[in-house]
């Protein structure tokens, strides 16, 4: 079982596509094999975010 990020308890609803906690409104969706501790320690992860961070939109110029 996977722990709910907000309640630190096991998700009451979990299947092959994800997990859901109705008490806290937390949903996890699986997009591949579960991440292991070895995955986090490997050098295979990108050194920068895959999706670039967008700059805030400029404010309209007062006329």
Describe it.
With 63 residues, the chain is mainly beta. The chain has a domain at 1-34. 8% of the residues lie in helices and 17% in strands. It is built from one helix and three strands. The protein has a three-stranded antiparallel β-sheet with strand order 1-2-3, with no helix packed on it. β1 and β2 (18-21) form a beta hairpin.
Number of helices: 1
Class computed from helices, strands and strand pairing: mainly beta
Question: What is the 3D shape?
Answer: flat
Number of strands: 3
Set out the fold topology:
Elements: E1 13-15, E2 18-21, E3 26-29, H1 37-41
Antiparallel strand pairs: 1-2, 2-3
Short description:
The chain has one helix and three strands, in the order βββα. The protein has 63 residues and is mainly beta.
């Amino acid at each position: 079982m996977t722990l709910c990020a907000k309640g630190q308890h096991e998700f009451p609803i979990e299947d092959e596509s994800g997990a859901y906690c109705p008490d806290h409104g937390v949903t996890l969706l699986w997009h591949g094999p579960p991440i292991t501790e070895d995955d986090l320690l490997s050098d295979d992860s990108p050194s920068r975010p895959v999706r670039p961070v967008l700059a805030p939109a400029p404010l309209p110029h007062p006329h």
